[in-house]
Design brief:
Elements (H helix, E strand, L loop, with lengths): L9 E5 L4 E2 L2 E2 L12 E5 L11 H15 L3 E7 L5 H14 L3 E4 L10 H13 L6 E5 L1 H4 L5 H5 L2 H4 L3 E6 L4 H10 L6 E4 L5 H7 L3 E4 L1
Parallel strand pairs: 1-4, 1-10, 4-5, 5-6, 6-7, 7-8, 8-9, 9-10
Antiparallel strand pairs: 2-3
The structure holds the ligand CC(=O)N[C@@H]([C@@H](O)[C@H](O)[C@H](O)CO)[C@@H](O)CC(=O)C(=O)O.
Amino acid sequence: MASPKKKLQGLVAATITPMTENGFSLLLNLVPLSDSLFGTVNGTTGEGLSLSVSERRQVAEEWVTQGRNKLDQVVIHVGALSLKESQELAQHAAEIGADGIAVIAPFFLKPWNKDVLINFLKEVAASAPALPFYYYHIPALTGVKIRAEELLDGIQDKIPTFQGLKFSDTDLLDFGQCVDQNHQRQFSLLFGVDEQLLSGLVMGATGAVGR
Ligand SMILES: CC(=O)N[C@@H]([C@@H](O)[C@H](O)[C@H](O)CO)[C@@H](O)CC(=O)C(=O)O
């Protein structure tokens, strides 16, 4: 099982991808990086799904390189519609020394039940077997409504590197049931809706991803 250097908790910055009129730019040195911060790269805020695979690789490399000795952990979002692309990005994240990977559910031809979703995630996780794996639950954007609580049930038997969840949904009942299930606090439960952060923390979120 992958063992993270440090648990992903507290405040995690959803990183931006600097853009110019001509596309994305690699001027990350213009982005202030504070010490002791965690970052998730190529997620919603970083517009990862609007970039090509090659652009995503470059952005990930840049954040990992520039974040070295500045950011506590850099987690790369590697979700994609194509399993192969997702696997390629997961392998790449491992090669460049990222600290973890996160994956959304495929959102065009959607998984129709928990098992189908887990099979997809499992294949991606297996491409980076030494990296902690996080599921990025964001049903409003993916349209995949499989409850996070349902997914968590027994997930480490299927995905040994599973380390937690980024919960970007307003369904606090579902979130509460995730917390209940995580009574040994083995997983990071990161809350992703800034406007409800207080409620998420009161309910037992171990951290938050926001901007
Ligand atoms: C959908 C979205 O953009 N969610 C934001 C929130 O910070 C969001 O902007 C905020 O709650 C405002 O609605 C983050 O959770 C995004 C995020 O985690 C990411 O980019 O990886």
